[in-house]
């Protein structure tokens, strides 16, 4: 499934970007399906890497994953909103680059917040993350 989902995800990214470029704003379903397919692709590739011993799971990232999952929605929406206003008018190239860079930015901030909260407030962090 990892090759199929990767190809479908990339096709959906191109389609979503093209619809945005054509100013067709009724593409919310395509965007959300792209997120789900991209998630399946990433999980498939990660599982493949772990089973082949190409990837090793860090205990720190294992612990921070739920925190990042729970935290990412609101900051991602705010960053995307202000990023688009800052770069208006946005080119299709910037839209495509943003599509990949903003999630890395949000995850990096989330991991940093998790690391700081785990260091300074370990009991609270354990409570908030359910001890995960």
Outline of this structure?
This protein is an all-alpha fold and 132 residues long.
What does this entry look like structurally?
This protein is mainly α. Helix content is 81%, strand content 0%. The chain has 6 helices and no strands. It has helices at 2-21, 28-51, 59-71, 73-86, 92-120, 122-128. The mean pLDDT is 87.
List the helices and strands and how they pair.
Elements: H1 2-21, H2 28-51, H3 59-71, H4 73-86, H5 92-120, H6 122-128
Helix pairs in contact: 1-2, 1-5, 3-5, 4-5, 5-6
Count of helix runs = 6
The main pleated sheet reads as: none
What value does the average pLDDT take?
87
Topology, number of strands: 0
- Seen as an oligomer or otherwise, the chain set is single chain
Low-confidence stretches: none
């Amino acid at each position: 499934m990892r090759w199929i989902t990767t190809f479908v995800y990339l096709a959906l990214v191109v389609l979503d970007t093209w619809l945005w470029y054509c100013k067709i704003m009724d593409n919310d379903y395509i965007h959300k399906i792209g997120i789900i397919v991209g998630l399946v692709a990433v999980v498939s590739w990660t599982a493949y890497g772990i089973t082949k011993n190409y990837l090793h799971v860090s205990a720190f990232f294992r612990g921070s994953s739920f925190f990042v999952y729970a935290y990412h929605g609101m900051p991602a929406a705010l960053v995307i909103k202000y990023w688009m206003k800052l770069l208006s008018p946005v080119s299709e190239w910037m839209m495509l680059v943003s599509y990949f860079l903003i999630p890395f930015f949000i995850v990096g901030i989330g991991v940093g917040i998790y690391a700081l909260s785990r260091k300074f407030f370990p009991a609270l962090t354990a409570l908030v993350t359910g001890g995960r």
